[in-house]
Amino acid sequence: MTAVLKVEGLNKSFGGIKATDNLNLTVEAGELHAVIGPNGAGKTTMISQLCGTQIPDSGRVMFKGRDITRLATHRRAHLGITRSFQITSLIMEMSVLDNIALALQAREGHSFRFLRPARSVASLRDRGRALLERVGLGDKADHATVALSHGEHRRMEIAIALASEAELMLLDEPMAGLGTQESLEMVALLKGIKGKHSILLIEHDMDAVFALADRISVLVYGHIIATGTPSEIRGNEAVQHAYLGEE
Ligand SMILES: Nc1ncnc2c1ncn2[C@@H]1O[C@H](COP(=O)(O)OP(=O)(O)OP(=O)(O)O)[C@@H](O)[C@H]1O
């Protein structure tokens, strides 16, 4: 397998706190790799360094063999890395379809035509509808975004990530705030996407993580203490001790 993302010896401190401590991680092409860890373990700090909103003190971030450690966020997006969920990218005043068409338009580099509604371009509209079908929102295309539920907004964010055709999707707690049924639906949706994209998933919902991940890395005090398949992680004593409890 080929590494899409390779993180080598990453360090980031805030005052006396080592939020990222000699962190090593590899995401292979097409895998869904989940990173779990207790509150304050450094998951957000790690993902911020992967998408470029924070720059490490030392160490390297490689994307498809290229050193992107100090590359600006928008240039990483251009290379094919997208981050979803932590900061919403939805424009509530616009229709559901307009949001997706706009994301498709941005991908094509037509954002200078911002004043021309993206939905007036037939190809963007058709592809937008197809993406909405894919995330189960085909019947909501013409609804106002603001009128949709939280779970539906999360599905829209998946459609926007898909519109960007990103090779590496960084999914930052997609289940946060979802009810039981909505979480199950999100897991089913992500199952349909995985394999086609490389995905790094940060998630607190262990049922979702164990249902989805090809591999899991466990982050404790900024350091990955174990990486393995879900069954390897379940059986790892250090992990049970540090994180999963005695279950
Ligand atoms: N800008 C900052 N200034 C100071 N300390 C910070 C900053 N950002 C993070 N930290 C500290 O770094 C550590 C890691 O925080 P981080 O938010 O990355 O953890 P996390 O695993 O994402 O937590 P959670 O699961 O609660 O979201 C924590 O001790 C946190 O207080």
TrEMBL record:
The keyword Nucleotide-binding applies. Gene3D superfamilies: P-loop containing nucleotide triphosphate hydrolases. Signal peptide: none annotated. The keyword Transport applies. Residues 5-246 form the ABC transporter domain. SUPFAM superfamilies: P-loop containing nucleoside triphosphate hydrolases. Pfam families: ABC_tran (PF00005), BCA_ABC_TP_C (PF12399). GO terms for molecular function: ATP binding. Keywords: ATP-binding, Nucleotide-binding, Transport. PROSITE patterns: ABC_TRANSPORTER_2. InterPro entries: AAA+_ATPase (IPR003593), ABC_AA/LPS_Transport (IPR051120), ABC_transporter-like_ATP-bd (IPR003439), BCA_ABC_TP_C (IPR032823), P-loop_NTPase (IPR027417). It comes from the Bacteria. This is ABC transporter ATP-binding protein.
